[in-house]
Each structure stands twice: as structure tokens, then as C-alpha cells.
Write a structure and sequence with these properties.
The complex is a heterodimer of chains A (202) and B (626). By secondary structure, chain A is of the alpha/beta class. Chain A has one domain: 3-Layer(aba) Sandwich (Rossmann fold). Helix content of chain A is 34%, strand content 14%. Chain A has 8 helices and 6 strands; from the N terminus they run E-H-E-H-H-E-H-E-H-H-E-E-H-H. In chain A, strands 1, 2, 3, 4, 5 and 6 form a 6-stranded parallel beta sheet that branches. Chain A is globular and about 45 Å long. Chain B is mainly alpha-helical and 626 residues long. Chain B folds into 2 domains: 401 residues, Na+/H+ antiporter like fold (Up-down Bundle); 199 residues, 3-Layer(aba) Sandwich (Rossmann fold). Chain B is 71% helix and 4% strand. A 6-stranded parallel beta sheet of chain B has the order 3-2-1-4-5-6, sandwiched between helices. In chain B, helix 22 links the parallel strand 4 and strand 5. Chain B starts with a helix and ends with a helix. Classes of the chains: A alpha/beta (202), B mainly alpha (626). Chains A and B meet through helix 2 of A and helix 25 and helix 28 of B.
Chain lengths: 202, 626
């Protein structure tokens, strides 16, 4: 059993259609912890000691957030700046996070096609997530492919529900160590490992 | 003294001072010289208005010296005194001893009896505490090396006068019956030697103990009553009480009050005591200097110019050389030594006392006494000139002194922040700043609280922070920011006016009780206004929203937005209010509440964060599809 931590960040969660659904589907069971950053630190005054303790208690760290400006909402950056301390998370003596896994679970307005070299965003999502990937590497962590929900502005309620179930299955599978190294290194998105009808993967 | 002549004399003295002191000061010559010149002008030589009582007046005015020593004591913490012990005993002791020996030797060589010679030596050895300290303070030189040394020497001289007074009767050439022993109630002189010592020690110890255990509670009690003039009266009573006690046991009142000052130097009432008593000191010292000027006997100068000039020159030269050599051997640098030697080479006010005493005892004949008196007065009158001479011609050649000393002084003991009012409001700010190592000078009017806070380790001073002199004493000139956190709204406005007028460089941050208070402060030109309930009411609002299920971050942002809007509307409404000053207060208040609420109709727009809104994006996405 792996312990999963969902670091959630949405500045206007009450207005979000996708994340309200996703969060509702996060399984409430031992070993999966939902941690709402904006709710805990509305003034951005992050409790570093506490956050580090929480990190130590988990094996898989998931940043769940909307994909704002090809990145994450501001509090995630604040969190990284403060919590991933030199000498603790990285640097010569910073080995606290060694061997842990990091990935992003994001919602984004653009379609899958728009995030191709030929699409209007020019790059793949994975390319835009490079800062996360390298931060994980620097902290001696493994970085895994993201879980992505594309085209959120056009999703119907049914589609959204399906994505939420997919997310739920992902978290359960992660908690149960059901993914092999080969599987995760060959897939594009974590979504690929939990198939749902392809018409939705727009 | 009948009232008519008393009032007339006051008129003469005050007029002379008011006209001449500012003039002389403006010419850059210092206030001491101004007073002395005023004295010369009203003296017998020119206008002859001073009356024949200038020596009486000098007695009264000597009390100014006593008060001055009290204030010096207040500024001198015991640690500093202890640090100066070598200078006081070593340098001061040697100065008095050597000067007495040398002057006595010269006098004896001129053919006077040994009694006369010794008396002359003792009369001429002490310098003028009043003139030197006043001048040093005025020029900001008290903290310099030379200033500290001068102070040490003067202090020792003050103490040395006591044994001198008891030696003089022994030199008397008159038989006991002839001598006029009206030694002002000094019953100590009649006691045997060991008892004298005991009495002296007892008196000194009494002052220290009483200062610790009697005066502090008394001051607290008086301060608690919050009657300003009674506090001033207590301060005066303290000084006069010590003076009387000291004269009674035959000790120097100056020494006694100095000790009293030192004992109270660590007390929370230090600033208040100082600012209360300072005007008396200033006036009495001024009077003293005028009396010095008026007592210069120009007839004598006219009739015996050469002899007097010779005496004066010899006096200054001998004292100056001894001081110079001592300064050198105590490792004073050349520029400091020049200040030290030139500053102390005159003979001071104690000469008048000692001389009167010697006359009484028939040691020194009247003609010589007059001559010495004139020389002493002239030497005192010349002292401010020496300081100017030193400043203009000697220091530029050597001088590094002022720049270095002054910079160190500021870092040393001045805090960048003054907090006026240390109740619940100021207390929080103060603790917050203290936690970040920011130095604060704290003033408070509640004596119980001051007492308590000092026990808790805060450096809090008692006093009315709206007073210029207290602010000045608290270092308002050097501080960068003052936090006006007192609870009395009117006092706050008063304070703002005082600060704006006297300390224009000091930034003011002010607490406001409510909107009306804030309006008044805005009209007074304040930019940094902190309404005491605004932030906590908003925090209550935020928590209420959260309990109702709103997101923490949303509620947090809502509060910030609301506060910004509220401050903005406050500014707007304050200008409207200005034009409606004629409306009576209650009407105005209702009016305002209406305006505030009307303004709040814009409020729904405030809470919208368009940045995270998805509706527009969804609409766009739909149009793309069509």
C-alpha cells in the first residue's frame, strides 16, 4: 500500500465545475489524504514544518489544480518555494523526499489536439510541466505522467462524471501499487492506464 | 525685600536676559556669555540697575547649580558613574591637590602668610561647574572624552569643597571669640571627627535608600493623581529637601542632589522629572550668570588694571598648565586636552562661598579679597570666550572630535521608534516590534502600568507624551517613526500638532477610535491612520463567512477588498464632511451612516474575481464550435 497525498489548489473552488466533481470522488479511505491549500492557508502563510511532516508521511504526492497560464495557481508556487527547503528536500544533505513519486492532476480548457506540436499551444502538456518534473528530480523524486482533463469548458455533466470516476480509480490504483514501472513510463497521461470511452478523450 | 523692589529687580533682570541672550546667542557666542553680558550691562559699571544685592541674588541663583547637578545625576546611570571612578578620584583629586599646592606656593613666595596662601589656593582651585557644564551641554560635548573628564573633575571639586570649608576655620588668625561662627546651622562642625564621618555616610546612605524605597513610591502616588503641577512640585520638593538635609549636616547640596539624581536615573520617571525641573534650572542658572556679570567690579579694574590683569593671567595660566599636564598624563588626545584645559582653567562659583568664609574668619584681608573676587568673576566671564576660541581656532587644527562622538551617541541609546501610549493597542504593536529586535522608546501616562511593565522588563517611561519636552527627552529628534497609540482622541490630535511643529522629520502613525476620529486626523494631515476596530471586526466577518461554508481564501480576499474599499470611501467622505461642518454632530452621524450604506450599494461588484471566472471561457468555447 502506498500512501497518497493530494495537494489541492483552486482559488475559486466554489465556482469550479470540474474540481468540485473530482474532489467529491476522491476516495475517503486510509492512505489517501486530501489537503486543500487555499483553504488551509488563505493568507499564503504556509506552515512549513507541518507541510514537511505531511510530506514525510506519504509516498505519492499529487498536485491537483486547474492549469492556469500553463502552470499552477499561485499558492502551489508559494508552497514549493517554502516547503521544499534546501538541505531538506534538495542539496547535499537534502534527502527527505528520496524515492517518493510526484505527479500533477490537472484540468485544462484546451483540447488534447491543441497541446500538440501542430496545435495552437505548440507544446505537449508534459513539456509545460517541465518545472515540476525537474523540481521532482532535484528532490530525488520520481516524476510520473500527469492526469489531464482536456477541454473542460465543453464537457457535459456525464463526461465530467466519467472523468471523476476515472480519477477515483487512478487514486485507488496508486494506493494499491497497481501500476508497473513499464506502464507508467510508456504512457502519455496516467489517464491511459484507466481507459474510459475514447469519445470523451477529446 | 519689599515687593516693589523685588518686582522691579525681576523686571530689570528679565528684561536684560530677554533682550541680550537671544542677541548674543544669534551672534554664535552661546547663552552663558549672553547672560554674563546682560549682567555687566545692568551692573554698576553701565546702567547700575542691578541694585546692591547681586551677591544675595547669587546665593539664590546658586540653587540653579544644585538643580543642574540633580539633572546631570538623572542622566547619569550608576554604571557610568562607576566607569568614571578613576577620572573622578584620580584626575579630579590630582587637579585639586596640585592646584592648591602650586597656587599656595606662589602666594607664599609673594610674601603672604602660609594661612593666607593655603586659603587662596583652596579658593582658586575649583572650576565653575555651572558655566562649564552648561556650555558643554549646549555644544553637545558632554559625551566627548574631554566632556566626560571635565565632568569627573568638576564632580570631585564639588566634593572637595566640603573638607575645604572645614579646613578654613582652622586657618583663622582670629581668636575663637572674634570669629563669627554663623556657619548656617552646620551642627556637624561641633561634633567629634568620627561622628562627623558617620553623619556624612549616614546622609549619603539615607539619600540612596530614600531614593530607592521612598521617592519612587511617592512619585508613583503623585503620578497616579494625574495633577501635572503637583508632580512638578514634588520634583522641586525633592531637590529642595535634599538641599536642606545636606546643608544641615554640612555637606554640599550639589553633591546631595547629584546623588539623588543618580539614584533616580534608572526610574521610569526620569524623563518626566527632567522635563519638569529643567525650566527652573535654566532660569536660576541664567540668574546666576547674570549675577556673575553684575558682580564684576569695574572700578577695581579701572583703578588697578595691571595688578588685576596680572592676577587673572597668572590664575588662568597656572590652572591651565596643570590641567594640560594632567590631561596629557591621563592620555587625552591633543584636541580633547585643549578643550579640557581651556574649559576648566577658570575659577568657579565656589570661590564666592569660600572667599566670604575666609573674610569672615579674617584669613584674607578685604582688599585682597576684592581683588580675587574680581579676578574670579572675570575668569568666569572669559570662559565662554575660551570655548569659542577653542572651537574656532584650535579645533580646526586638530579636531576630529565632534563627528566621531556624535555618530556614536546616536547609535548608542536612541531608538528608531517611539511608542506613545502602551495600553492594549500600543502594547501589541510594541511586543510585535520587540519580537523583531526593533528598538522602541515607550511613553505612557498610567503610572501603575509603567510600574508593571518595567517589572516585566520593558523600558517604559512615565509622562504625558503630548508635551514637547518629554518627546524631546525621549529622543524624538533622532527617532524615525512615532506611533501615537494613546487612547484619548483629543490628546492624539494635540500630539500630532506638537510633533508636526517641533519634529517635522518624524513620521507619524496614529491610532483612530472610529471614522469621526479618523476624519479629524485626516484634516490634521495624517496619512497613516489605523482604526482600532476595523481589522478585528473584519476578521470576525471572515470567520463568520467561513462558518457559513464560504471558502477561507474567498472570505480572506473579501475582507481585504472590503477594507481597501472602506479606506477609500473614508477618504471620500472625509472631504464631504468638511463642507458640512455646520450640521450638528448627531445629524451628521446619521447622514454619514446613510452615505456609507448608500456607497455600499456598489459592494456586490467588489466580490467578483473575474480572473478565475469560467463562464466567459465556456461561452467562447461554445461559439468556436458553431
Amino acid at each position: 500500500m502506498a500512501k497518497v497525498l493530494v495537494l489541492f489548489a483552486h482559488p475559486a473552488f466554489e465556482k469550479s465545475r470540474v474540481h468540485l466533481k473530482l474532489v467529491k470522488h476522491i476516495p475517503s479511505q486510509q492512505g489517501i489524504r486530501f489537503h486543500d491549500l487555499y483553504e488551509n492557508y488563505p493568507d499564503f502563510h504556509i506552515d512549513i514544518e507541518r507541510e514537511q511532516q505531511i510530506l514525510l508521511q506519504h509516498d505519492i504526492i499529487i498536485f491537483q489544480h486547474p492549469f492556469y497560464w500553463y502552470s499552477a495557481p499561485a499558492i502551489i508556487k508559494q508552497w514549493m518555494d517554502l516547503v521544499l527547503e534546501h538541505g531538506w528536500a534538495y542539496g547535499r544533505t537534502g534527502k527527505a523526499l528520496t524515492g517518493k513519486i510526484m505527479l500533477n492532476a490537472i484540468s485544462c480548457g484546451g483540447s488534447l489536439q491543441s497541446y500538440l506540436p501542430t496545435g495552437k499551444n505548440n507544446r505537449k502538456i508534459r513539456d509545460y510541466l517541465l518545472p515540476f518534473e525537474h523540481s521532482a528530480t532535484l528532490c530525488n523524486m520520481e516524476y510520473w505522467p500527469p492526469f489531464v482533463i482536456h477541454g473542460t469548458h465543453k464537457l457535459t455533466d456525464t463526461d465530467m462524471h466519467l472523468h471523476a470516476v476515472q480519477y477515483e480509480q487512478l487514486l485507488l490504483a496508486l494506493a494499491d501499487d497497481r501500476f508497473s514501472v513499464a506502464e507508467k513510463s510508456t504512457c502519455n497521461y496516467m489517464n491511459d492506464l484507466i481507459p474510459i470511452p475514447s469519445s470523451i478523450q477529446s | 525685600m519689599d515687593q516693589q523692589s523685588f518686582l522691579f529687580q525681576s523686571l530689570v533682570y528679565l528684561t536684560a536676559a530677554v533682550i541680550l541672550v537671544p542677541l548674543v546667542k544669534k551672534a554664535g557666542l552661546g547663552s552663558v556669555l549672553g547672560y554674563i553680558i546682560a549682567g555687566i550691562v545692568i551692573g554698576p559699571a553701565i546702567l547700575n540697575l542691578a541694585g546692591d544685592r547681586s551677591t544675595d541674588i547669587m546665593h539664590v541663583a546658586e540653587f540653579g547649580v544644585v538643580i543642574m547637578l540633580f539633572i546631570i545625576g538623572l542622566e547619569l546611570e550608576p554604571e557610568l558613574l562607576w566607569k568614571l571612578r578613576k577620572s573622578i578620584v584620580g584626575l579630579g583629586g590630582l587637579q585639586v591637590l596640585i592646584t592648591v599646592i602650586v597656587i599656595s606656593g606662589i602666594t607664599a613666595a609673594l610674601g603672604f602668610t602660609w594661612q593666607q596662601s593655603l586659603a587662596t589656593g583652596m579658593i582658586l582651585a575649583p572650576s565653575s561647574t555651572a558655566i562649564v557644564l552648561q556650555t558643554l551641554q549646549e555644544k553637545g560635548l558632554m559625551k566627548s572624552e574631554a566632556g566626560q573628564r571635565s565632568f569627573a573633575v568638576l564632580l570631585f571639586q564639588d566634593i572637595a569643597v566640603i573638607p575645604m570649608l572645614s579646613i578654613l576655620p582652622l586657618l583663622s588668625t582670629l581668636s575663637a571669640s572674634q570669629a563669627n561662627h554663623e556657619t548656617e546651622g552646620s551642627f556637624i562642625a561641633q561634633q567629634p571627627g568620627w561622628l562627623q564621618t558617620l553623619i556624612v555616610l549616614g546622609a549619603v546612605g539615607g539619600i540612596v535608600l530614600a531614593g530607592r524605597h521612598l521617592v519612587k513610591p511617592l512619585l508613583r502616588l503623585v503620578a497616579g493623581a494625574r495633577i501635572r503641577e503637583i508632580f512638578t512640585a514634588t520634583a522641586l520638593l525633592l531637590v529642595i529637601g535634599i538641599t536642606v538635609l545636606m546643608s544641615l549636616v554640612g555637606l554640599s547640596p550639589a553633591l546631595g542632589t547629584f546623588l539623588g539624581g543618580v539614584v533616580l536615573a534608572n526610574s521610569e520617571y526620569r524623563h518626566e522629572l527632567k522635563s519638569d525641573i529643567e525650566p527652573f534650572k535654566g532660569l536660576l542658572l541664567g540668574l546666576f550668570f547674570i549675577a556673575v556679570g553684575a558682580s564684576i567690579n569695574f572700578n577695581l579694574i579701572a583703578s588697578e588694571p595691571l595688578q588685576l590683569a596680572g592676577l587673572l593671567f597668572a590664575l588662568l595660566l597656572v590652572k591651565g598648565i596643570i590641567l594640560w599636564i594632567l590631561g596629557k598624563s591621563f592620555k587625552l588626545s591633543t584636541d580633547q586636552n585643549a578643550l579640557f584645559s581651556l574649559g576648566l582653567c577658570q575659577t568657579g562659583e565656589f570661590a564666592f562661598v569660600l572667599l566670604a568664609y575666609s573674610r569672615q574668619e579674617g584669613i584674607i584681608p578685604d582688599t585682597s579679597a576684592d581683588m580675587i573676587l574680581a579676578a574670579v568673576a572675570l575668569s568666569m566671564a572669559l570662559t565662554p570666550l575660551f570655548f569659542i576660541l577653542n572651537e574656532k581656532f584650535i579645533q580646526p587644527k586638530f579636531g576630529t572630535l565632534e563627528k566621531l562622538e556624535k555618530a556614536a551617541d546616536i547609535i548608542d541609546e536612541k531608538n528608531p521608534v517611539i511608542i506613545a501610549g502602551f495600553g492594549h493597542f500600543g502594547n501589541t504593536v510594541g511586543r510585535f516590534l520587540k519580537a523583531h529586535g526593533i528598538g522602541t522608546t515607550i511613553l505612557d501616562i498610567d503610572s501603575d502600568r509603567v510600574d508593571f511593565l518595567r517589572k516585566m522588563g520593558f523600558k517604559v517611561y512615565y509622562g504625558d507624551a503630548s508635551r514637547y519636552d518629554l518627546l524631546h527627552a525621549a529622543g524624538a529628534e533622532q527617532a524615525r517613526i512615532i506611533l501615537v497609540t494613546i487612547s484619548d482622541a483629543e490628546k492624539r490630535l494635540e500630539m500630532i500638532e506638537t510633533i508636526k511643529k517641533h519634529f517635522p522629520n518624524l513620521q507619524i502613525m496614529v491610532r483612530a477610535a472610529n471614522r469621526n476620529d479618523a476624519y479629524d486626523q485626516m484634516n490634521a494631515g495624517m496619512l497613516n491612520i489605523y482604526r482600532e476596530t476595523l481589522d478585528s471586526s473584519l476578521r470576525m466577518g471572515v470567520d463568520t463567512m467561513k462558518k457559513l461554508g464560504f471558502r477561507a481564501y474567498t472570505a480572506h480576499r473579501a475582507a481585504i477588498t472590503f477594507r481597501k474599499y472602506d479606506e477609500w470611501s473614508l477618504k471620500k467622505l472625509s472631504s464631504i464632511r468638511d463642507q458640512k461642518l455646520y450640521i450638528n454632530t448627531s445629524r451628521e452621524f446619521i447622514d454619514e451612516m446613510e452615505k456609507i450604506i448608500q456607497n455600499d450599494n456598489r459592494m456586490p461588484n467588489l466580490s467578483v474575481d473575474k480572473g478565475w471566472e469560467e463562464e466567459g471561457l465556456i461561452l467562447d468555447a461554445k461559439q468556436e464550435d458553431q
